[in-house]
Amino acid sequence: MAAPAPVKAHNVVLVHGAWADGSSWAGVIERLQAAGLHVTAVQNPLSSLEDSLAETRRALALQDGPTVLVGHSWGGTVVSQLGTDPKVSALVYVAARAPDAGEDFVALSGRFPTGPVRAGIQTHDGYTLLSKDAFLNDFANGVDRDKAQVLYAEQGATAASLFAGRTTEAAWRSKPSWYAVSKQDRTIDPDLERYLAKRMKATTVELDAGHLSLVSHPKQVADLILEAAGQPSAATAAR
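^ that's the sequence the OP posted. Answer follows.
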């Protein structure tokens, strides 16, 4: 039986992950806007799960109808918790976490190889940043070097306690979901991403990209979001 057609959504809310900010979505945003969608990039505070949920909840409250909720990396935790909001019509995960309700995601991740980015995490006063080498070579592998340097300067300090936060909801159990696996990911193991995508029965694409596929492959990521929104791809919309 064919899957039901996605609910047509005009709104997209984007949630970035650790060591990033909303500007990492720039290439995706311009393509979604060109296709006529209303896009909001949450400036995720990365100070606690509660703070991130509150900021994203405020963004969702401002949407005027069906909304695709998109998370990159740790932002998938926020998507999994808040995706049960009645306005959310679909979920998109981009090289992202997708915890089950109450799940110890750190323990789950431990069943898969540790990405080399882990060695570059530096902690100061309870917050973490990535070393320059880890950011450029592992976190942003596959991204144009000059662009990666800018992203490194913009990286968001991330609470060391953030990663242990547990959700109480798993929106992917009740909402249609899409997942973009990064085959060259050096932050989250690609096989963990595949496991998560399979577990949620997501419509899945595999990109020949590192962790920041939203930067290096913005067209493919935008097209996946457009599919989840029941909209034509960026190429089709441009005709």
